[in-house]
Design goal:
Helix content is 40%, strand content 20%. By secondary structure, the protein is of the alpha/beta class.
C-alpha cells in the first residue's frame, strides 16, 4: 500500500451540518490525501452522514466523548501520511492550501509544525500563530533559548511531520479541549524544532461550533483549567505562584473598577458577563483549585 504524502485528521463533535463543507473543500484541492474523521460520540447524524456520503473517509466512532487531544491521537495512530494536517470540522480549506503545504514542509526540514493563514467567515484575517506563551513575562527563565519566533499555532488548522508528533507522544491528553495547541508548540520547541507559517495556505474558520451549545461561563472555566495545567507542566512552582498572584490582583482591580462604572454602563449584559468572569477568575486564583485564567483574555 502506497504511503500518502498527507493525512488529514478531523475531530468531530455534533457538527454534521458543517462536515460536508469541510470535506468537500478538501476534495476540491486536487491533492490525493488520506482523510480520517474521529467522531466523539456525536448525538447528531454525523457518523451516518460520513458512511453514506463519504465512503473514502476513514471513520473512528467513539462511544464517549474522548476529548480533542485524545481523539486527535487516535487519528494519529491510524494515519499513514508523512505529514499530518489536524483540521477542525468548522473550516473551509481554501484553494491551493494543501498544495502549498506539500511544497513548504519538504523544503523546510527544520520546521516540525506549521500553520495556515486563518480567516473569519467574512474573510477578514484571524490570528493563526502566536508569538508569546501565557504568563510569559513571569517565565523568562523557563522560556529562554527556544528556537524560532513563533510560539504556538492555533489548533484549528496545523500541519506536522508525523514522525515528530510520534516522538513527542502526540497531544497531551490531559488537555481535554483547550490549551493543547499552546502546549504542543512549546513541547516541539523544547525539542529544538521550529514552528512555521505557510505562505499561500488559507483556511476559513467558523470558530467555536463544537461548543456552540455550551454555556459561555462553562467554556470560560474549561479555558481556565487548561491554562493552569499549562503553567504547572512548563513553569516552576514559584513562577506559577507569581502568575496567579498577579492575575488575582488584576481580577480584583477590574472587579472594583466595574462596580464603580456599572451604574452608568449602557451595555449592562456585557458588563454583567465581565463581572461573572472576574468572580470566577478570583475563585480559581484564590484557591488554585482547578485552574487559572487565560493570560490577557479577562476582558474577552
Amino acid at each position: 500500500m502506497t504511503t500518502p504524502a498527507l493525512s488529514v485528521i478531523i475531530v468531530n463533535y455534533n457538527t454534521a451540518d458543517l462536515l460536508p463543507g469541510c470535506l468537500d473543500s478538501i476534495g476540491r484541492q486536487g491533492v490525493s490525501c488520506e482523510i480520517i474523521v474521529v467522531d466523539n460520540a456525536s448525538r447528531d447524524q454525523s457518523v451516518d452522514l460520513l458512511h453514506e456520503r463519504y465512503p473514502g473517509v476513514t471513520v473512528i466512532a467513539n462511544r464517549t466523548n474522548e476529548g480533542f487531544s485524545r481523539a486527535n491521537n487516535q487519528g494519529l495512530r491510524r494515519c499513514r501520511g508523512e505529514l499530518v494536517f489536524f483540521l477542525n470540522p468548522d473550516t473551509i480549506v481554501q484553494p491551493g492550501c494543501l498544495a502549498a503545504m506539500l511544497d513548504f514542509m519538504p523544503a523546510r526540514p527544520e520546521v516540525a509544525m506549521a500553520g495556515t493563514a486563518l480567516f473569519d467567515p467574512d474573510f477578514s484575517p484571524h490570528p493563526s500563530v502566536e508569538y508569546t506563551y501565557p504568563g510569559h513575562r513571569y517565565a523568562r527563565q523557563e522560556l529562554s533559548g527556544l528556537p524560532g519566533d513563533i510560539a504556538w499555532i492555533l489548533g484549528a488548522a496545523l500541519v506536522s511531520r508525523r514522525d515528530r508528533m510520534e516522538r513527542v507522544g502526540g497531544f497531551d491528553e490531559r488537555f481535554f479541549l483547550y490549551g493543547e495547541d499552546v502546549d504542543l508548540g512549546l513541547v516541539m520547541r523544547k525539542r529544538g524544532w521550529r514552528l512555521g507559517s505557510i505562505p499561500g495556505a488559507g483556511v476559513v474558520h467558523l470558530e467555536g461550533q463544537s461548543e456552540r451549545n455550551s454555556a459561555p461561563m462553562e467554556v470560560f472555566k474549561k479555558k481556565l483549567r487548561a491554562e493552569l495545567l499549562f503553567y504547572d507542566k512548563h513553569y516552576s512552582e514559584n513562577t506559577v505562584r507569581r502568575i496567579c498572584r498577579a492575575y488575582e490582583w488584576q481580577a480584583r482591580w477590574r472587579l472594583f473598577s466595574l462596580r464603580l462604572t456599572l451604574p452608568w454602563c449602557r451595555d449592562r449584559e456585557t458588563a454583567g458577563l465581565k463581572r461573572d468572569r472576574y468572580r470566577v477568575a478570583l475563585e480559581f486564583y484564590n484557591g488554585r483549585k482547578s485552574g487559572c485564567p487565560e493570560t490577557g483574555r479577562l476582558t474577552r
